[in-house]
Design goal:
CATH architecture of the largest domain: Roll
Strand order of the largest sheet: 1-6-2-3-4-5
Largest sheet: 6 strands, antiparallel
Structural class: alpha+beta
Strand content: 25-35%
Number of strands: 6
Order of helices and strands: HHEEHHEEEEH
CATH topology of the largest domain: SH3 type barrels
Helix content: 25-40%
Number of domains: 2
Shape: elongated
Radius of gyration: 30 Å
Distance between the termini: 46 Å
CATH class of the largest domain: Mainly Beta
Length: 194
C-alpha cells in the first residue's frame, strides 16, 4: 500500500520546477547555502539568457551603411539610394518634402530623362536632423539632383561593430558566470559561500 505521507508524482514535479525557498537543496558536506543565494543565481542566469537572446536577435540587424557615388542609371529599380538636392529643387519640393531638406533617401521606383521617383524612407535636413517616412512616392526632377549615392554595406565597419557587440556580450556573460564559479568554489578556503 502506498505511503499517504509521501508526495504524489505531480507534487514532486511541481516542487522540482518551482522549489520553495524554505526547502533549498542540501549543500555539499561542509558547505552552507545561505538564504537568497539560489535566487540570486537564478536571476543572474536569467539576465545572461536575456542578454544572449538580445544579442542573437540584434546580430542580423547590425550593419553600417554608406552611400557610394552612383549615376541614377546604375541603380536598379528597388535599389536604395540617397538623392542630394540642389537649392532650387529643395525650394521647389518644400511643399512635398518639408522645409530645408538637403537629401532624400528611398527606394528607386522609376526614372527617366526628366525625373527620378523614390519611395521615400527618410529626409535629411540641412541641420543634419533626419525625418523618417513611410514609403510615400516623390518625383524629383533630374535638374534638381545634385548628387546620387547608392546605399552599400560597409563590410569593415559592420564587422567591427558586430565584433564589439559579440565581445561585449561574451564579457557580460563571463562576468555573470564568474559569480557562479566563485560562489561554487567558495573564497578563502572555509568551504562556505560568501
Amino acid at each position: 500500500m502506498p505511503n499517504p505521507a509521501a508526495p504524489s508524482p505531480a507534487a514532486r514535479l511541481r516542487d522540482a520546477r518551482h522549489p520553495s525557498p524554505h526547502h533549498a537543496p542540501a549543500a555539499a558536506p561542509g558547505r552552507e547555502v545561505r538564504p537568497g543565494v539560489l535566487a540570486r543565481r537564478a536571476r543572474r542566469r536569467r539576465r545572461v539568457a536575456a542578454l544572449t537572446l538580445l544579442v542573437g536577435a540584434a546580430g542580423p540587424t547590425v550593419g553600417c551603411y554608406s552611400y557610394a557615388p552612383a549615376a541614377p542609371s546604375a541603380v536598379p529599380e528597388g535599389g536604395e539610394l540617397r538623392v542630394e538636392l540642389t537649392a532650387v529643387a529643395a525650394e521647389t519640393l518644400a511643399g512635398q518634402l518639408g522645409a530645408d531638406v538637403r537629401a532624400v533617401d528611398g527606394r528607386l521606383r522609376a526614372r527617366d530623362a526628366e525625373r527620378v521617383v523614390l519611395a521615400v524612407t527618410r529626409t535629411v535636413l540641412r541641420s543634419g536632423a533626419e525625418q523618417e517616412w513611410r514609403g510615400e512616392e516623390v518625383a524629383i526632377p533630374t535638374s534638381g539632383v545634385a548628387r546620387v549615392g547608392r546605399r552599400t554595406l560597409s563590410r569593415g565597419r559592420t564587422a567591427l561593430v558586430a565584433a564589439a557587440v559579440i565581445g561585449g556580450s561574451v564579457l557580460a556573460a563571463l562576468a555573470a558566470g564568474s559569480d557562479f564559479s566563485l560562489a561554487g568554489r567558495g573564497r578563502g578556503g572555509g568551504g562556505q559561500e560568501r
